[in-house]
Design brief:
Alpha-Beta Plaits, Inhibitor I9 domain-containing protein, S8pro/Inhibitor_I9, signal, alpha+beta, 4 strands, 18% strand, four-stranded antiparallel sheet, S8pro/Inhibitor_I9_sf, 5 helices
Length: 133
């Protein structure tokens, strides 16, 4: 008898949760439909890219990279917010968070050689996986 009561209680709780979820979902849909289309347009997501550039002959690298980024982002402040790292030794360039549209624009800038999305790569498998081969 106790298990039947517990089962009924579980079904009631599950039903209640389902009703609340449906109510919240329909309320969110109503709220979303009242937002003007110009406001509800999707925002492009910025991801980390590595931008390879020429080495400027008589300018500090970070200043050059900020100037290059500013030309696409609209201000030096926005460029400073997006710039993650300046590469100085093995390669000349910088990493920054850029949207697909910004990647397209910066690729056309003078002195920009290549723009690549940053990704993490694994050199080899762990020893546990290698023993199962």
């Amino acid at each position: 008898m106790a298990s039947r009561s517990l089962l009924s209680s579980s079904n009631f709780t599950l039903s209640l949760v389902l009703i609340i979820t449906i109510t919240i979902s329909s309320s969110m849909a109503e709220i979303g439909s009242s937002v003007p289309k110009s406001v509800s347009t999707p925002v492009e997501k910025a991801t980390v890219h590595i931008v390879y550039t020429d080495r400027p002959p008589q300018e500090e690298l970070e200043v050059y990279h900020l100037r290059t980024l500013s030309s696409v982002l609209g201000s030096e402040e926005a460029a400073k917010g997006a710039l993650l790292y300046t590469y100085k030794h093995a390669a000349c360039g910088f990493s920054a968070k850029l949207t697909p549209k910004q990647v397209e624009e910066i690729s056309k800038q003078p002195g920009v050689l290549q723009v690549m999305e940053s990704r993490t790569m694994q050199l080899h498998e762990s020893p546990a996986k290698l023993t199962n081969i």
